[in-house]
Amino acid sequence: MSARTTPWTSVLLAAVASVSWAFLAMAGTAALALHLLGADTAGSLGPMTAAVVAMAVGGKARPGGDVGAFGLSGSQTQAGIGIAPLGVALVGALLLSWVFLRSLRRAGAEVSVRELLARVVSTAVLFLAVLGGLAWAGQDTVAIDGSALSPSKGTTDDLLGKLPGVGKISGGLADGLQGLIQTKASITFEVATGRTLMGGLLWVLGVLLIALLASRRTPLPAGWEGVHRTVRPAVSALVAVLVVAVLAGDAAACYAALTGDEPGRIMGGALIGAPNGVWLAVPLGLFVPWKGQASGPLTAFLPDPVDKLLAGGAGKTITPGALADLDGRVWLLPVAIALMMLVAGALTATRTPLGDSTKTGFVGRCALRLGIVTALALPLLTQLSKVKVNANLSVFGLDAVGAGIDLHGSLPLGLLLGALWGAGAAALGALLALAFGSAGRQVAPLALAGMSGAAGPDGQVPAAVPATGGVPVVATAVLPVADNPYAEPSVDNPYAEPPADHPYAEPPGAAPAGPYGEAAAETGKGTPAGAPGGDDAGRTYPAIAYEPGPYLPSPVYRPEDESNPYAEPRSGEEQAAPGAGGADSPTVVGPPPGPRRPAPGGSEDKWPEPPPPPPPAAPRPPRRPR
C-alpha cells in the first residue's frame, strides 16, 4: 500500500479556518467584556481589545504613564500586570480545537505522522502571524480620572506640604498643582512583541496537544493505538468536568447580574475572568495551599472572605480551613470539588475498555491513568490562575496611589495532591461503574479497534472494518457470556445464547429447524421429529406446536389413492408422450366425459340448472296515422 501524500490544500484551508475563527471569537469576547466594564470610556476599544487578546494567549502588556506639571520631570507611573484573561483564552481554545479536530477527522480513518505535523505546524505559523499583528496594534494611551484615583483635598494638601519648596506656599499655587495632577494623569500600554510571540507559540502548541489527547474520535497515526485506550479516556473526562465547572461559574454570574446593582460590570467580569476564579478554586478545594498578599484599592476586587483574610497587606497562607474561620460555608467548596473529581473518575471508567483483566485490574488501570493526568493538570491550573498586579503612581518620589495583589499556589503540592485525588476518584468511580454495569459502555470505536480479547459490557469484541473515510466502522462478534467476567446473563442482550435449562432451548445434537418449523431430520412416514405419530425424542416445544397449521402443514393432506393431476410422476412410472396417450391424457382430444354419477344419498355434486329465460315481450302495435 503506497504512502498517502500530504493534502496541502486541505491543510492550509484548515489552518486558516481554525486560526481565523479562534481570533474572531476571542476579539468579540474581549470587546464585549471591555464594553460592559466601561473601559471604552477611558480609551479606544480597538487597541485595548488587541492587548487583552494578546494577554489571553500568553502575551505581556507593559503599562507606563506620565503626570506633568509646569514642565517638572521625575513623575512616572510604575505598573505591572501578571494576570491572564482566561475567559477570552478558553473561548479561543475551544474554537481552535474544534475546527482543527473536525478537519483531522475528515482526513480519513488514519492519518500519517507527516500530515499531522504539517497540520500542527501550519496552524501554529498562521497563529503567530496574526498574533504579531495584534501585538503591533495593541498600544494606546488611556486617560485616568485623577479625581477618582487621587486622595481627598485635605490629604492632597498634606502631600503637597511635604514637597520641598512648595510646603510654605499656600493659596492658588497649591490648588493649581492639585488640579493639574488630577486632570493630566494618563497611562500608556503596549504589548511586548517578543515575549508575546513566545507565549503564543507555547499556548497554541499546548492547546493542540490537549485537543488531540482529549478527542476520543479523532484518528491518530499508525502505531499510536495505545493512546486511544490509555490516555484519551482520562484526559477527556477531566477536561469535560473542568469546562462544565466554568459553565457553572458563568451561570452563577448570570444569577448575580440579574439580582445585583451593576449587571453590566458583573457580566463583563465573568466573560473575562470566570475561568480564573473557577480554576483557582479547584486546587484550593483539593487543599493545595496558596500564598496571598493584597494592598490598596485592588483588595476590593477579591471575593469574600479572601479580602478579609488578606486585609492589612501582610502575606498569608490561604487554605480552606483559614477561610472557613471567617465563613463556615467555605467547607462546601472541598465537597463540590470532590464530587467533581468523582464524576471525572466515573467518566474515565465508562470510557476505558474492560479488556480481559479482572475487576481489580480494571480499577487499578483507571486509578493509575487518571492519577497521572490529574497530577499534571493541577499544577497547570495553579500556574494559569495565579494573579500578580502592581500599580504605583509616583509623584516626585512620593506614592500618591498604591495597590497590588499577589496570589500563587504551591506547584509541588499540586503535583502530589493531584496524583492522590485523581487515583482515589478514579478507583471509586470505577467501582461504582462496575456495580451499576456502566463500565466500558461509552468506549470510543478507535479505542476498541485492534484489541484482542477486549470484550465490551455484553461480551462483544469489536473488530475494525476498513472504511473509506472518517471513523472506521466497527463490527461486533458475539462471545459467550461466560468469557466476559463483567457481563451478567440478561434478557437485555438479544444475541446471548439461552442457557441449557431454557424450556425453548434446542438440546445438544438436535437437528436444526427448517423455515416453517419442520425439523430437517424426519422420522416415521413423512412426519417431523416430535410431531404426532413421529419420534418424540427431538421434541423441544409444546405438543400444540407440532399440530398441522399455517406454518406446519400436515404431510398427509389427501387420500393416497386419489389422483393428483399436478403431482410429479413417481419413480418407475412413465409419462405419456404427447399425442400417444388415451382419452384420459390431458393433452389428447377425446370424447367429452359423461355426466358424473350422483353422490350417495341422491344429491348431485353440482349446481342446479338455471331456469329457462322468460318469453319475449309482445310486439308493440303500429301507430295510427293522424
Describe this protein's structure.
With 626 residues, the chain is of the alpha+beta class. Among the domains are: 167 residues, no CATH class; 210 residues, no CATH class. It is built from 17 helices and twelve strands. Strands 3-4-1-2-7-8-5-6 form an eight-stranded antiparallel beta sheet. Strands 9-10 form a two-stranded antiparallel sheet. A two-stranded antiparallel sheet has the order 11-12. The protein is elongated. The chain starts with 7 loop residues before the first helix and ends in a 98-residue tail after the last strand. The relative contact order is 0.08. About 21% of the residues have low confidence.
How do the helices and strands line up, and which of them pair or pack?
Layout: H1 8-37, H2 45-56, E1 61-66, E2 76-82, H3 86-105, H4 113-137, E3 139-143, H5 146-149, H6 153-161, H7 172-183, E4 186-191, H8 193-214, H9 225-230, H10 232-259, H11 263-285, E5 290-295, H12 306-309, E6 316-318, H13 320-324, H14 332-351, H15 359-384, E7 387-395, E8 398-409, H16 411-436, H17 445-448, E9 460-465, E10 473-478, E11 522-523, E12 527-528
Antiparallel strand pairs: 1-2, 1-4, 2-7, 3-4, 5-6, 5-8, 7-8, 9-10, 11-12
Helix pairs in contact: 1-2, 1-3, 1-4, 1-11, 2-4, 3-8, 3-11, 4-8, 6-7, 8-10, 10-11, 10-14, 11-14, 11-15, 14-15, 14-16, 15-16
Feature tags:
12 strands, 44% helix, 626 residues, 17 helices, alpha+beta, 8-stranded antiparallel beta sheet
Described by strand count, sense and barrel closure, the largest sheet is: 8 strands, antiparallel
Helix content: 40-55%
Please tally the helical runs, counting DSSP H or I stretches of 4 or more residues. Answer: 17
Question: Could you tell me the radius of gyration in angstroms?
Answer: 43 Å
Give the spatial strand order of the biggest sheet: 3-4-1-2-7-8-5-6
Distance between the termini: 111 Å
Low-confidence stretches: 67-76, 144-153, 155-174, 176-184, 393-400, 453-483, 485-492, 511-534, 574-585
**What portion of residues belong to β-strands?**
5-15%
Shape: elongated
Keywords: Membrane, Signal, Transmembrane, Transmembrane helix
Biased composition (Low complexity): 511-530
Biased composition (Pro residues): 589-598, 609-620
Region (Disordered): 489-626
